[in-house]
Amino acid sequence: MTTFRVGVIGAGSIAQSHLSAYAENADVELIAVADMNLERARAVADQYGAPRAYADPHELLADPEIDGVSICTWNNSHANWAIAAVKAGKHVLVEKPIARTLAEAEEIQRTVEASDRVVQVGFVRRHSPNCQVLKSFIDAGELGEVYYAKASCLRRVGNPGGWFADKEISGGGPLLDIGIHVLDLCWYLMGSPKVVSVSGNTYDKLGSRGNVTTMPRYKAADYDPSKNTVEDLANAVIRFENGASLLLDCSYSLHATKDSIEVSVYGEQGGAELEPALHIATEMHDSVVNIEPQIASRTFEFGVGFAHEIQNFVDTSLGRAESIAPAWHGVEIVRILEAIYESASTGREVELG
Ligand SMILES: NC(=O)c1ccc[n+]([C@@H]2O[C@H](COP(=O)([O-])OP(=O)(O)OC[C@H]3O[C@@H](n4cnc5c(N)ncnc54)[C@H](O)[C@@H]3O)[C@@H](O)[C@H]2O)c1
């Protein structure tokens, strides 16, 4: 049996999900953790039994005993570390978004194309069994041609603050943080069609809602309610070359009566909701029929999603599978996100290639 030796760059919140999945994977040996906060890198390395900890990720990348890395740093360094890792001969699983900007994302893509290394983007929700079951139905033609999709992720009081709320570091607000997940699920299920135009809007009417102290919220470690340079809400209509269209909206701050998530795709022979839970609808013998695949969970479960994502990364790196989230998919999603911001700032539809 081949062992895949792993390093993790960035030892904050999401690194824990990567590390737990690596620690439970029989094919993997954890070698090192790096974080500019060395104390954090050491604590996390100890927690998961990795023998080495570094403050400088360059040192981790120079470690010849490492075959692949997860990049779990802030968005502003994804491109830098992904490119450096490939050049150091490592396979890469980089968290979403693959990069802050299209220019950075395309630089990663050029590096990937010039190498034989795997670069996978962290679209963890794709790996969830409910998504894979629906994908198998769609690939088998059960929904017919998918021509419409809806992607929505609305938080009422959900601006995490810290680096998430600093556009310079994050590249954007709810669009790059949570809208990206639901947009990506729809795009993936639609068969990764080529985008031709994007019309978007962003709003910053409510700010971080740091004044609301009566509702619990996830807060970044360096939360400061007075610091916020990202949008509250973004929406978009996205058109594809095959005539299909997608409606997207997402928010950190909104006067909605509840938080919500929705991912739905509609085709000529059937439709499906993936989020909040998998349900499929079709028509048989002039009757409307709901199809209920019998699976362990109809909803996305974080731990299961990460276990499958890590397995796909390991299998692809070891040459025994294909990645279901290759780098170019991450690039195409950033192309759409950047066009949404451009359309919002110009007040015009953006046409793409
Ligand atoms: N897939 C998901 O569902 C999901 C969920 C949350 C976050 N994320 C992504 O994961 C990434 C990290 O998010 P987080 O919530 O873990 O943030 P975090 O702030 O909790 O952790 C980031 C860690 O990276 C370190 N770091 C940042 N820049 C660095 C650099 N240049 N060199 C070395 N260390 C550096 C920080 O010190 C920190 O310990 C983001 O890109 C985010 O979009 C993905």
TrEMBL record:
Residues 135-352 form the Gfo/Idh/MocA-like oxidoreductase C-terminal domain. Pfam families: GFO_IDH_MocA (PF01408), GFO_IDH_MocA_C (PF02894). Residues 4-123 form the Gfo/Idh/MocA-like oxidoreductase N-terminal domain. One of its GO terms (molecular function) is nucleotide binding. InterPro entries: Gfo/Idh/MocA-like_OxRdtase_C (IPR004104), Gfo/Idh/MocA-like_OxRdtase_N (IPR000683), Gfo/Idh/MocA_Oxidoreductase (IPR052515), NAD(P)-bd_dom_sf (IPR036291). Belongs to the Gfo/Idh/MocA family. This is Predicted dehydrogenase.
